[in-house]
Amino acid sequence: LRCLKLQHINYFFPVFNLGAGYHSESKAKEYKHVCKRACQKAVDRLRAGAMALEAVTAALTELEDSPFTNAGTGSNLNLSGDIECDASIMDGKSLEYGAVGALSGIKNPVLVARRLLSEAQKGKLSAGRIPPCFLVGTGAQQWALTHGIPPCPSEKMATKFSLSAYKRNKRKMELAEKIETEHHFLKRQRTSSGTPISSSLDTVGAIVVDQEGNVAAAVSSGGLAMKHPGRVGQAAHYGCGCWAENAHDARTYATAVSTSGCGEHLIRTMLARECSTAVQAEDAHQALLEAMQNKFIGSRFLASEDGVLGGVIVLRCCKCGDDQSSENLQALLVEFLWSHTTESMCVGYMSAHDSKAKLLYYSISSFFCILDNPLSKKCHQHEWFLMPC
Prior knowledge:
The protein is α+β, with helices and mostly antiparallel strands. The protein has a single domain, classed as Glutamine Phosphoribosylpyrophosphate, subunit 1, domain 1. The chain is built from ten helices and 15 strands. The protein has helices spanning 28-47, 52-65, 109-121, 137-146, 154-157, 160-182, 187-191, 263-269, 271-278, 284-297, and strands at 2-3, 13-21, 85-91, 97-103, 134-136, 204-209, 215-221, 242-245, 254-261, 310-320, 331-340, 344-349, 358-363, 367-370, 385-388. The two termini are 29 Å apart. Residues 4-9, 185-196 and 366-389 have low confidence and may be disordered.
């Protein structure tokens, strides 16, 4: 478990991740730039008075537009050489959720998920029909187009890197299948955690708390490289990709969670909701450690897996201050935590009074921070953010 240790007096706090998986240190500069842009987009919206839901959408849109993330532009190609994206968003205030799966031909899947959420908030459709909250495939694409979201050809969403990765992976797969025809005993090796197919697991996500204490979370992914067409990962599934829930009384915390990693592992454990429930405990640090160990790494639902791959970012917040205090003097106490089992994870944050976003990169084999003033390895410790609201 990695816990950011800083103290600030702020009005709002957006956090995002570039995914849990493998991040090349040679691309550190590009990661830094996209992180800063995403955080700045969210902060600009919050400073203008927008709520958490709008800010988290703005951050995810920026991350999807980057060719260096496995979401939107630059997404992994599936077995047929096409791009199919998953995305979901959840509003902690209304508890509404919207999602799309295996969506092609739309540059920003999170915008479709956001529109689904908004339309659901309007109530029932004609003849008393219940509005959808989760659409997939061509149905999702058609719905997006009829609701004014512009199309984008898949070839324009593919990048030089994603195309070369597809060709490389296709050659490896064809070679492996040829060998397996003659040597069946190699099949288990190819399908284990040591598979030769190189795949980005870096689902991107964002979690935000606004000046009123509302939280929101969103996640977007291009899925596994060489996945079967129609496969839908955790980024679209309820309780698996993201979770956001405002405090419903004085004894509970508002929580926002976003996950990244192997979708099949995250779906079978519903990790986002599990982590949200866990950090209602008094000690969020210990609670998240135990949730990752017992509900994910040691989960009986993943007992057949050689290794589990995933990461999570979490915001927990509550209003504090005595009843005699004026509303302006009340504070919002915010905790930011993250954990991962993958080779690396990249997270960033920006507060109301920060002039620039901060980026933290953690690798199992090495540790480095990309910050204006680099932190020490005290990132393992637990801390709070105190924010007037």
